[in-house]
């Protein structure tokens, strides 16, 4: 609790942060601007105002389960901010990855890759899903996303793979198969090229990080 000034109208400032895996941050940096400003008179302002009030209430008077409620509300707030950003239709929504996601054709290809990451996608099959020719699809995808379709697919697969490796309940060949690779070797080569470390080393590092976080949480509870 910070108290500053006095005499004016009271203002409540709610701050927080999200921690993302480096592989996820790459996509978010391309998807989002450095700053999202949502004005009170925007259509989405009411939903944000309601969520912020709930957050402020939980933080001002913590009760059993408040940590869980605050974390869930923070997730909701994040989604609402993205919705407000898209709804405002600034210049940043008219090009780049965010625009590609809402493109009636390229958006179909992105949705297909996101939902069926293990499918053996090719440029031809993705173009067919969009109802476009191979060459027209490849050119438009590159123009909007700034990656080729297969470059984007590889990056997305590695992002999903990091999540599996952090969870630690799959063997390496199972992770490889889950993200569309027929062999450990092919998957490991692609993972090292994109992420910068071997998948086994990444998994060990993630496990150590998780254990350190768990111990810190236990220390704080004590």
Would you kindly provide a written description of the structure presented here, covering whatever features stand out?
The structure is a single chain. The chain is an all-alpha fold and 222 residues long. It has 2 domains: 22-32 and 34-88, no CATH class; 96-210, Orthogonal Bundle (Arc Repressor Mutant, subunit A). It contains 11 helices and no strands. The protein has helices at residues 22-31, 45-60, 66-88, 96-102, 106-115, 123-130, 134-145, 149-167, 172-178, 184-195, 199-221. The model has no long low-confidence stretch (mean pLDDT 83).
Summed up:
This protein is an all-alpha fold. It has helices at residues 22-31, 45-60, 66-88, 96-102, 106-115, 123-130, 134-145, 149-167, 172-178, 184-195, 199-221.
Number of domains: 2
Oligomeric state of the chains in view? single chain
- How would you spell out the order of helices and strands? HHHHHHHHHHH
Largest sheet: none
Distance between the termini: 22 Å
Q: Which runs of at least 5 residues are low in confidence (pLDDT < 50)?
A: none
- Tell me, what is the CATH class of the largest domain? Mainly Alpha
What structural class do the secondary elements suggest? mainly alpha
Write the layout of secondary structure elements.
Elements: H1 22-31, H2 45-60, H3 66-88, H4 96-102, H5 106-115, H6 123-130, H7 134-145, H8 149-167, H9 172-178, H10 184-195, H11 199-221
């Amino acid at each position: 609790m910070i108290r500053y000034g006095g005499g004016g109208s009271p203002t409540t400032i709610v701050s927080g942060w999200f921690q993302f895996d480096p592989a996820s941050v790459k996509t978010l940096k391309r998807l989002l601007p450095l700053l999202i400003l949502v004005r009170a008179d925007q259509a989405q302002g009411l939903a944000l105002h309601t969520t912020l009030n709930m957050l402020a209430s939980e933080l001002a008077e913590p009760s059993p389960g408040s940590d869980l409620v605050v974390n869930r509300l923070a997730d909701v707030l994040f989604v609402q901010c993205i919705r407000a950003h898209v709804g405002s239709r600034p210049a940043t929504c008219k090009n780049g990855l965010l625009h590609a996601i809402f493109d009636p054709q390229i958006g179909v290809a992105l949705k297909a890759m996101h939902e069926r990451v293990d499918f053996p996608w090719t440029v031809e099959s993705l173009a067919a899903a969009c109802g476009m020719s191979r060459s027209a699809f490849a050119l438009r995808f590159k123009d909007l996303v700034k990656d080729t379709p297969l470059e984007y697919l590889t990056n997305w697969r590695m992002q999903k793979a990091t999540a599996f490796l952090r969870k630690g309940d799959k063997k390496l060949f199972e992770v490889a198969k889950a993200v569309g690779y027929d062999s450990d070797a092919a998957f490991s080569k692609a993972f090292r090229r994109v992420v910068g470390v071997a998948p086994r080393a990444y998994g060990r590092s993630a496990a150590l990080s998780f254990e350190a976080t768990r111990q810190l949480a236990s220390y704080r509870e004590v």
